[in-house]
């Protein structure tokens, strides 16, 4: 233990990207006080954020051959600004006659660049695609010290509202990778309880960071309903009740410890507040 403590004390000095707090990062309260009203505002704020990253971190990082592999050294091999497109930014791929919309949500300590290939493939098949840069990501590691799951959830809502405004009644989908998956589930559960929130027709979860509640095993129960004659709907086991069962299972998962799905589902959710 003593050796470990001595090694920890002798670690290299922290760099600006470890310590600086970028004040132009999005937070949920910016929506509440109308500083950010829509996705266009979010993108404008993101532009200012990356400008602040240049001024406060890139400008304080040494350059030259000795720093060729440093992420924040201008022009280095690891500098994403050195490439034609910096895929750490949120990006939107439109389609002239889109058949639907897809919101892509990356994982923790990740950024939209991991969703690039998937987004481009979906766009080629006629989808209007948004890959959202989650707050606290894609800039400096220090961003993860200050972001909350509520900030990320508020950004997801802006992305879905923008897709709905662009596509009208066309179907919307959310694809979430890792921690992007519980964000997708969290948004959908909220949208089920509201009358005006755009509701996705499907969720795709890639390596989801979700602990499935033991009651999830009951999800197979709905398959048994297919063998029942139509008259059995009088026993309140029709579509509405099946949907309630599915929402209940999601709510049980949502109440699992840890953000962003640890809170109670609300009064419209079966068993809420328990």
Description:
This protein is of the alpha/beta class and 274 residues long. The chain folds into two domains: 15-210, Rossmann fold, CATH 3.40.50; 212-274, no CATH class. Helix content is 35%, strand content 9%. The chain has nine helices and five strands, in the order ααααββαβαβαβαα. A five-stranded mixed sheet has the order 1-3-2-4-5, sandwiched between helices. The longest helix is centred in the middle third of the chain and has 19 residues, at 149-167. The radius of gyration is 22 Å and the shape is globular. The model is unreliable at 231-274 (pLDDT under 50).
> What is the number of helices?
9
Query: Helical percent range?
Result: 25-40%
Largest beta sheet, briefly? 5 strands, mixed
Work out the number of β strands.
5
Write the layout of secondary structure elements.
Blueprint: H1 2-9, H2 16-19, H3 29-32, H4 39-56, E1 91-93, E2 100-105, H5 116-124, E3 127-132, H6 149-167, E4 172-177, H7 180-193, E5 202-206, H8 221-224, H9 239-254
Parallel strand pairs: 2-3, 2-4, 4-5
Antiparallel strand pairs: 1-3
Helix pairs in contact: 6-7, 7-9
